[in-house]
Specification:
Layout: E1 3-8, H1 15-25, E2 28-31, H2 32-38, H3 45-54, H4 67-76, H5 78-102, E3 107-111, H6 115-118, E4 127-132, H7 135-146, H8 150-158, H9 163-168, E5 172-175, H10 180-202
Parallel strand pairs: 1-3, 1-4, 2-3, 4-5
The protein binds adenosine-5'-diphosphate (ADP) and magnesium ion.
Adenosine-5'-diphosphate binds at residues 9, 11-17, 141, 145, 176, 178-180, 183.
């Protein structure tokens, strides 16, 4: 298993932007949102389990997952959220581990938006990298990207771990309150650091 780093951060903090820059430098980037979507395509086992445990109404007539309806339900219902997580997270984790194991890159970055909140990824990753910026910036970036209202962006933020909680778990931090050049510089530095760490791991030091 190569050195595996969990990359996390609140909505709009710049996880995807950072991950893209790491990928361009040669890191294997494993995105748990992408895995979650792959696990819930029509006919997938997890989909059957979602229907059985949360209700058939979440499966559309064409067999696909009604993501919007499911999102509304788990947003409003903590038990449903737990059930969904119990269905998806073990599967996401084992698929992420499989992809990390298979990768030939010097190190792997697993992007987990809710790494701190879910906790269950800590045995997959050797380090945690947090992308951090002010909540005001998170909200502005989220609104600009997705067209969500400020209230909607704030509501999502309120459901996530606080910056402090996230930073508490961080081994490395990217301060993404600057421009894209500042982000790029920090990514490059961390890339060098991770190459060093992965080399040390390989030579058994
Ligand atoms: N340092 C930055 N300067 C300007 N725009 C940025 C910066 N970092 C991210 N963005 C933009 O902000 C938005 C949110 O970033 P994104 O990486 O998608 O966040 P996340 O994946 O954490 O939700 C995107 O449109 C992205 O291009
Ligand atoms: Mg993203």
């Amino acid at each position: 298993m190569p050195l595996t780093i969990g990359l996390t951060g609140g909505i709009g903090s710049g996880k995807s932007a950072a991950a893209e820059l790491f990928a361009a430098l040669g890191a294997a980037v494993i995105d748990t949102d992408v895995i979650a979507r792959e696990l819930t395509v029509p006919g997938a086992a997890a989909l059957g389990e979602i229907a059985a445990r949360l209700g058939n109404e979440f499966i559309l007539p064409d067999g696909s997952l009604d993501r919007a309806a499911l999102r509304r339900r788990v947003f409003a219902d903590a038990r449903a959220k737990q059930t969904l997580e119990a269905i998806l997270h073990p599967r996401i984790r084992s698929r992420a581990a499989e992809l990390a194991l298979r990768s030939t890159a010097p190190y792997a970055l697993v992007v987990v938006p809710l790494l701190i909140e879910t906790g269950g990824y800590r045995d997959l990753v050797q380090r945690v990298l947090v992308v951090d910026c002010s909540e005001a910036r998170q909200i502005a970036r989220t609104m600009a990207r997705s067209g969500l209202s400020e209230a909607e962006a704030r509501a999502i933020l309120a459901h996530q771990a606080t910056r402090e909680a996230r930073l508490d778990h961080a081994d490395d931090v990217i301060d993404n309150s600057g421009d894209l050049d500042a982000l790029q510089r920090q990514v490059r530095q961390l890339h060098e650091k991770y190459l060093g760490l992965s080399g040390a791991a390989l030579s058994g030091k």
